[in-house]
Amino acid sequence: MNRGTARARKPAAERRRQIIEVTTRLIAERGFWGLSMQDVADGCGLTVPGLLHHVGSKDRLLLAVLDHRDAEDARALVAELGPFEWPYPLPPGVDLRRLCAALVRRNAAQPEIVRLFAVLEAESLAPGHPAHAYFVTRQERALAAFTTVAGGSGDRPSSLARQVMALMDGLQIQWLRDPEGTDLVAEWEIAAEALFR
Amino acid sequence: MNRGTARARKPAAERRRQIIEVTTRLIAERGFWGLSMQDVADGCGLTVPGLLHHVGSKDRLLLAVLDHRDAEDARALVAELGPFEWPYPLPPGVDLRRLCAALVRRNAAQPEIVRLFAVLEAESLAPGHPAHAYFVTRQERALAAFTTVAGGSGDRPSSLARQVMALMDGLQIQWLRDPEGTDLVAEWEIAAEALFR
DNA sequence: GTCTATAGGACGATAGAC
DNA sequence: GTCTATCGTCCTATAGAC
After folding, report:
1. What pLDDT, on the 0 to 100 scale, is given for residue A5?
2. Is A57 on the interface with B (CB under 8 A)?
């Protein structure tokens, strides 16, 4: 049906939001290398050239998705912790343990987003990946920010920062693989008890 | 050169070893969705049909790579800890902390293999991935085995098992992204100090 | 055990009409 | 803002000769 007739014409901003939402879901499922522009277009009720008109190229679409995630995370965290810059550094008064608890609670409510990052984090280890630079920078900034906030907690703040990041990522993978059998928030609390002791 | 002339004819077993080695490297770089049979064939000095003669299909090639890894890991761990079954359960006398130290030391010496697993672990979260079942089983077994070995260490052995697995995976990702700036073995030792305290 | 030839698609991207 | 048409390339897999 509708073959040969014009499809719904949407304002660019709204269409863009839709494209990013659909792409987010598909990358979480298949990663960037497994993503096809055809699938994105289908999911939006567009043809591929119609899609490319909005995003330029497949690489730029990926970066648009990541930019949008950063903006969303900034919104959520500022609402929770008060105004500060994002992504990173964190405001100096923040308590690391409470910050992490907030992050884990938020992540537990949006498995799709967590999976998006889990898949891209691994895929982008290859230097040729279009999000390689993004994730290198992201890790540098996260490590620096968490290290600063961990400053008072012991004699190796950067190691504590690394442990916090590693545990969150690792527990999330376990949870994504077995959501029914894994209580992400509870396991984090138990782990935090050991880390911050 | 050599266009149209017969290529080197190898015994099947040797050719298979070569194919698995080349594939391991390529999957570590691009994941399974990003892997092309053409690249594997080129890396082996074969045509694509020549390659398919040995491995049957792309899916079966992936599973062959994983089987080969399990066999190699079994060899190495038995050499280090004495004879036991693999993959899992572990022999009951093993000390969890010493086992982990051995695993981390071994992993630190073979970043390519660690990356292979990091990439596939994330990619295979999707139910349609050809290694999905493999990694579900792997996580179940690892959790069960580590829980058993952690039995005497506290009142929540399964949580300690999860923390150990999560920390190893998470630290490895950080290390792969910044090998120069991250001392995997040292960071693990510091983390283990906190976990096993 | 390896090849050539080919089937039969899917891919990302561009040109140009409307 | 969306389309049709098309380019050139890549993909996995099969058939059959040697």
Report:
1. 56
2. no
Type of residue found at A4: G
**What is the tens place of the pLDDT at every residue in A35-63?**
999 999 999 999 999 999 999 999 999 99
CA distances from B8 to B5, B21, B48, B110 (A): 10, 18, 15, 30
Burial of B118 (0-12, 13-18, 19+ CB in 10 A): buried
| For range B76-83, the mean pLDDT | 82
Sign of CA dihedral B164, B165, B168, B173: negative
Nearest Cα of chain A lies from the Cα of B36 at a distance, in angstroms, of 11
| Cβ of A16 less than 7 A from strand D | no
**Cα gap B10→B13, rounded to integer Å:** 8
Average pLDDT on B140-152 reads 91
State yes or no: pLDDT of A6 exceeds 70. no
On whether any CB of chain B is under 8 Å from the CB of A180, the answer is no
Contacts of A166 in chain B (CB under 8 A): 166-167, 169-171, 173-174, 191
Instruction: Establish whether the CB of B47 is closer than 7 Å to any nucleic acid atom in strand D.
Output: no
